[in-house]
Specification:
The complex is a heterodimer of chains A (111) and B (115).
Chain A (H helix, E strand, L loop, with lengths): L3 E2 L4 E5 L4 E7 L6 E7 L6 E7 L4 E4 L2 E6 L4 E6 L8 E8 L5 E3 L3 E6 L1
Parallel strand pairs in A: 2-11
Antiparallel strand pairs in A: 1-3, 3-8, 4-5, 4-9, 6-7, 7-8, 9-10, 9-11
Chain B lengths: L3 E4 L2 E4 L5 E7 L4 E9 L5 E8 L5 E2 L8 E7 L2 E6 L8 E9 L5 E3 L3 E5 L1
Classes of the chains: A mainly beta (111), B mainly beta (115).
Chain lengths: 111, 115
């Protein structure tokens, strides 16, 4: 049973526009959420995270929003750049002992 | 920042041979390491959780006798794919948690191709 879901397998955005990647989860016990970026044939790299006590965390062009009541989080990238083209995984954790990943969304930023 | 080194990055082997993949935390002690497998266009699938000094915990459906995991020290975990077959061909990734931390640090992955 997939506890973390990314329902959009792919997303294309024009350079300079906003990219919004969505993630839903089912387990209300998750208290920490992360986004990872992955290029082909490489391991994922950490992008940004948010604790369940917050509803927003911003780091440069990347902002993660958390809606606990809807069990939904999203990653906003603005402005989008061609180098942002990658697969983005959201992940959720409860107390850091176990991490559950979504299926990923492939983002293509068109120059 | 924390660095996790995974070696080799690519391996091609004949069917029936065994392949060992190493995962090292270079600048921190990793009490817990994870091994993932990624199939094309699919998520990272957790194979097992490796705790230093104890037996690994395997996810349902993962054959523990086929995928041997050894976490002998706080900086090294190994995954051995025994008697590899073409269906074992995949991208394997390790990750590690720094003690007391909440983030995963990933290795660069190993592309295994079994002929």
């Amino acid at each position: 049973d997939q506890q973390v879901k990314q329902n959009s397998p792919s997303l294309s955005v024009q350079e300079g526009r906003i990219s919004i990647l969505n993630c839903d989860y089912t387990n209300s016990m998750f208290d920490y959420f992360l986004w990872y970026k992955k290029y082909p044939a490489e391991g994922p790299t950490f992008l940004i995270s948010i604790s369940s006590i917050k509803d927003k965390n911003e780091d440069g062009r990347f902002t993660v929003f958390l809606n606990k009541s809807a069990k939904h989080l999203s990653l906003h990238i603005v402005p989008s750049q061609p180098g942002d083209s990658a697969v983005y995984f959201c992940a959720a954790s409860n107390t850091g002992n176990q991490f559950y990943f979504g299926t990923g969304t492939s983002l293509t930023v068109i120059p | 920042g924390a660095v996790v080194s995974q070696h080799p990055s690519r391996v091609i082997c004949k069917s029936g041979t065994s392949v060992k993949i190493e995962c090292r935390s270079l600048d921190f002690q990793a009490t817990t390491m994870f091994w993932y497998r990624q199939f094309p266009k699919k998520s990272l699938m957790l194979m097992a959780t490796s705790n230093e000094g104890s037996k690994a915990t395997y996810e349902q459906g993962v054959e523990k006798d086929k995928f041997l995991i050894n976490h002998a020290s706080l900086t090294l975990s190994t995954l051995t794919v025994t008697s590899a077959h073409p269906e074992d061909s995949s991208f394997y990734i390790c990750s590690a948690i720094r003690g007391g931390g909440e983030k995963l640090f990933f290795g660069s992955g190993t592309q295994l191709s079994v002929l």
